[in-house]
């Protein structure tokens, strides 16, 4: 997606050969117009998948997911990283090792919001080693729901997650795929080349 790639080139900060900071439009400050375009793009790519719900992870997955949910006219559920006082009964939980924070979090959703009749699109901000997506898929398994596919705003194609999830036969749609962050430069994969 060209507008996303331009935004990454103009505002992204390469923190290391493996970490990109995009706090000015996705991870801290949010660019609503770009989020709307991102939501519409996810909706177009999964238009025929029969999606009934979107599942994401707090907090950075919420903005693109809500925009996709608005366009697709389906609710958005976000998994919580911390147990809330109000999130007590009938939880589905999974362990997720965070690539950026180097810690393991238990993520949870209430069983009330996803069930075996749901066809779920999983959305997240970044795809690195795939741990967050695997955790969300684990939760869907517990709920007996079907997975429609995975929508990712920024995939780091030089890490293993995308390959691992696509090898399971799952449709992964990433709106920008980065091939390298070497020497402080962002290099994108050409569209169509996976
Ligand atoms: P994975 O679980 O695929 O290893 O990592 C994905 C998760 O880690 C995302 O939910 C995202 O929050 C975070 N993440 C991974 N790599 C990056 C990165 O380069 N920049 C930022 N801002 N977040 C990242």
Structure characterization notes:
There is one protein chain. With 194 residues, the chain is α/β, with parallel strands linked by helices. Helices cover 30% and strands 30% of the residues. It is built from six helices and ten strands. It has helices at residues 2-11, 23-27, 32-45, 62-72, 131-143, 161-166, and strands at 13-14, 20-21, 53-57, 76-79, 91-97, 104-110, 119-127, 146-156, 172-180, 187-188. The chain has a six-stranded mixed beta sheet, sandwiched between helices. A two-stranded antiparallel ribbon has the order 1-2. It has a two-stranded antiparallel sheet with strand order 5-6. Helix 6 links the parallel strand 8 (146-156) and strand 9. The longest helix is centred in the first third of the chain and has 14 residues, at 32-45. It is globular, with a radius of gyration of 16 Å. The protein starts with a helix and ends in a 6-residue tail after the last strand. The model has no long low-confidence stretch (mean pLDDT 95). It binds guanosine-5'-monophosphate (5GP). The site of guanosine-5'-monophosphate has 21 residues, from strand 2, strand 7 and helix 5.
């Amino acid at each position: 997606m060209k507008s996303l790639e331009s935004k990454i080139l103009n505002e992204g900060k390469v923190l290391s050969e493996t970490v990109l900071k995009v706090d000015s439009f996705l991870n801290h400050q949010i660019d609503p117009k770009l989020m709307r375009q991102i939501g519409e793009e996810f909706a177009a790519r999964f238009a025929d998948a029969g999606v009934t719900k979107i599942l994401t992870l707090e907090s950075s997955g919420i903005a693109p997911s809500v925009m996709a949910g608005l366009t697709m006219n389906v609710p958005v559920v976000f998994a919580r990283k911390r147990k809330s006082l109000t999130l007590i009964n009938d939880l589905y939980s999974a362990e997720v090792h965070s690539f950026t924070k180097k810690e393991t979090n238990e993520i949870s959703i209430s069983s009330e919001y996803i069930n075996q009749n749901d066809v779920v699109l999983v959305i997240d901000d970044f795809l690195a080693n795939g741990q967050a997506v695997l955790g969300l898929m684990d939760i869907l398994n517990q709920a007996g729901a079907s997975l429609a596919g995975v929508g990712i705003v920024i995939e780091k194609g030089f890490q293993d997650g995308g390959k691992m999830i696509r090898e399971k036969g799952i449709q992964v749609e990433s709106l920008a795929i980065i091939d390298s962050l070497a020497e402080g430069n962002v290099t994108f994969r050409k569209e169509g080349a996976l």
